[in-house]
Amino acid sequence: MSIDLKFRWWRKKKCFGTIRSGTIRKICLGLACSLVWSSSAFSAMRMWEDKQGHRFEAEYVKELFGSVFMKDANNHSIDIDVKDLSDADVQYIRTAFPPEISVNVIKDSKNKKRNKYARLREDRKIITLRVSIDKESNAPFNGKLTAEIYLIGKEVATDDFRLILKKAADVKFTDENHGECQFEITGETRAYTEYNNQERGDVYAGYIVLVFDPQGNQISLSTNFQWVQENKVNPLRNLQSGDFFDKEFNETPVPRPDYYIGRAITF
């Protein structure tokens, strides 16, 4: 597993898929930064064939500079030029094994216009995450990855988090998008003070972006939370937008004001 901290200027020509309302639009962005954990793709022993019809059993390891590196059942290394493999095996490599990627996230926040019925002390914000998933390796990849983007808020009165919004999107690298797929997700936070001066609502806390290979294996995790562990995020995928949860991603009850706790029902 590697940790990759990336800073980059965004190029002008981008494929920007907006995953809210299913619309597509183009946007130019500024500086982006994200912390990414990446893990290698799942591989297994299989039969391969070269263009001369010779068959051999081996496990795919990596592709580098036009050569495919494998290991056989005895852990012996094998390398063969991509161009010497059968067309079917080349197609398998191009669709089964994901490339190296980087994930960059930009957060934008703006105040939501207040209406005349709003509480005196109320803070509503519209939060937008702009996510770029970029192909870093030079080898072609014709398969499809899946990205899951989680916009997360923090309850102001408790230690609970709230899943403001989650979205899934297909990641397909093409000549048209130059190996850069971008997505946008927008949600809203609301923090306010009740008549008894108790603070309620939520504020923006952060994001989690997961990327999966064509077989459904997680290959990347990007987040601004230092406490998130790569092998413990799966319960997050079962939560729905609006759910509250703890740092173990266990769903928690809707937070209640102090004056509701222990309140008895009387007749």
Shape: elongated
Largest sheet: 12 strands, mixed
Share in β-strands: over 45%
Helicity, as a percent range: under 10%
Unreliable stretches covering 5 or more consecutive residues? 1-41
| Tally of strands | 16
Q: What is the string of helix and strand elements?
A: EEEEEEEHEEEEEEEEE
List the total number of helices. Answer: 1
- Provide the domain count: 2
Classification by helices and strands: mainly beta
N-to-C CA distance: 60 Å
Assembly state of the chains shown? single chain
Q: Any idea what the radius of gyration is?
A: 23 Å
Give the overall average pLDDT: 81
Structure description:
The protein is mainly β and 267 residues long. The protein has 2 domains: 200 residues, no CATH class; 52 residues, SH3 type barrels (Roll), CATH 2.30.30.700. The protein contains 1 helix and 16 strands. Strands 1, 2, 3, 8, 9, 10, 11, 12, 13, 14, 15 and 16 form a 12-stranded mixed beta sheet that branches. Strand 6 and strand 7 form a beta hairpin.
